[in-house]
Amino acid sequence: MPTEELPENAPGEYVPYHPNPYYSPETLPIEPKLDLSTETQDLVADAAYQIGRVDGISSTVDFSAVLYTSLIRLEAVESARIEGADVAYQDIEAYHTKHPGDGTDSKVEKDLKEALNYETALTYGLSKIESGAPITLSLLKELHSMLLEDVRNEGDVVGEFREHMVHLTSPQPGERPFVPPSPEGLSGLMQSLESYVQMGGQYHPLVDAAVIHYFFETVHPFSDGNGRLGRLLIILYLTSKGYLESPYIYPSAYFNRHKVEYVERMRAVSDGGAWEEWFRFFLEGLRSQAERSYDRTHRLRVLQARYEKEYSGSTSTDRFARQLLQYPYFTAPDLVEYLGVSRRTAYKVVEDLESDGLIEEVTGKKRGKEYKAVDVFDILE
């Protein structure tokens, strides 16, 4: 779309470039400031309420640390899947259960590494925010290096802004690629993003998270990994603003379910200033994911109560059944450490719980068997 065809309220312009013009967004903050509709404001209130419910119920459960880790891993898996990785939540749990020296298929390993890198980067970023560190360009570059460790494409610059043009394929057949701004303009644009975050934004934090995410993805400052880092930034920003005590919502799952609309809504902002439509899409994502997380946590709490009632005795089998939410993926030798029992007793526990249908073996091997808690995985996945 030539520059002259963009409406006046478009937050940027197309600059001639062969073979496709590149988009040069205006720096933040948005000028003039947007007057949000009643519908958007109502959705902000609803999303904030749902997020508050999640934080409320999550703080009341005994397995909050496990829930925290599980949801980070779910977010990692969904973010990797958006980028085309073939990885499942079970793969991450299996990886953390394995012992050094275990090997995996190279293709699966690379996809799994993307998800593991996201888990590492998100956990690190949250620790920085929780310690009082601000969100800076330096932190983003550090997180970018973590995300692309051992998975980057040859020639990609890691931990620094890109030095070349990139072309983003449209999800719609026949539509020209979207070309983000030139490398020469990245420094000024990203400095405006940093300043915007530091000043606390212009709107409600949930709306500002949408502004920040759109801007980051549109600028596309790195040669690779922008989608993953941009989605991670949502969680870090909301945590820094006090809207997430812990990452109990994971927006990547919503974006993955609505992948085409996700891209088109952001492009509509660039081409026509369609901020309200983008805000509503983004806020609905946060609202629906918070609702799902609340339901998931409630179901896990009910499951925990069931295990405590049905396995209230003092046998090793009873003791471990009550701990299944803490150890949803394990091997029989792991139980020796978890329960402080002999290997013979550990295998008896496995036999009992497998017979009761609480766990199932997932590898199909005769040796080196691995087990998952069936009900826990059904809820988490």
UniProtKB/TrEMBL annotation:
Which InterPro entries does the record cross-reference, listed alphabetically?
Answer: Fic/DOC_N, Fido, Fido-like_dom_sf, Fido_containing, SoFic-like, Tscrpt_reg_TrmB_N, WH-like_DNA-bd_sf, WH_DNA-bd_sf
Spell out the PROSITE patterns in the cross-references: FIDO
Cross-referenced Pfam families, in alphabetical order?
A: Fic, Fic_N, TrmB
Q: Where is the Fido domain?
A: 135-284
Which SUPFAM superfamilies does the record associate with it?
Fic-like (SSF140931), Winged helix' DNA-binding domain (SSF46785)
Name of the protein? Fic family protein
Give the taxonomic lineage as stored in the record: Archaea, Methanobacteriati, Methanobacteriota, Stenosarchaea group, Halobacteria
